[in-house]
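Data deposition worksheet. Section B asks for the primary sequence of the deposited chain exactly as it was used as input, without tags or linkers unless they were present during the calculation. Section C holds the resulting structure in token form. Section D is free text for depositor observations; keep each observation to a single sentence. Incomplete worksheets are returned to the depositor.
Section A, Depositor: J.P.
Section B:
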Amino acid sequence: MRARALKDILLQLNNAATGSGRPEPRLLAVSKTQDATAVAELAAAGQRAFGENYVQEAMGKAAALAGLGLEWHLIGHLQSNKAREAADLFDWVQTVDRPKLVEALARHRAAGRPPLNVLIQVNIDDESSKHGCQPGDVPALAEAIAAQPRLCLRGLMVIPTPHPDPEQRRDAFRRTHALFDGLRAGHPTVDTLSMGMSDDYAIAIAEGATMVRIGTALFGARPAKTS
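Section C:
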């Protein structure tokens, strides 16, 4: 079932990219709340990159699936006191939004490992309920990341205001892409714009996303929380 869902999503991503004249984006399968068996099933179908919200949850899955050579992305808010574990576990951290986190991740990334790929999370719609830096803070934060040999600045990540009509998110995607273009002009390692999810990825692709984060369309509805 998940193999078919993956095939369908990849086809839809290709169609959206072709229709908008954009390159096809990378697919990040959002595996938060899914168990290791579900992740392994999708991995067997060819998916390699998975996104997790919580360090502790990801640690268990990564350990259980260590032999599969998967790529793990942190897409949830990271507290500084979890930076040691995150720097050791993840291949990418997409939610860097403050200098303190930059310093902590760089300090804990082992010298024998490849540099940790990081994205700057931008609070593009200035929502008080969301994490992320302000657009105007991106240049200074990017310089701080680029100065760390154990980190590699790869681009931006954004979660726009979830308007009921996904089309209303287009402007936020467009503004983020403009910010991305400015960042890329000054940093040669920048190549990734992570934006768009299950209900708005086609619009995000049209506005320049190079990576989309999809969970529900791949795994189905998230398991209900138990008390």
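Section D:
The radius of gyration is 17 Å.
The mean pLDDT is 95.
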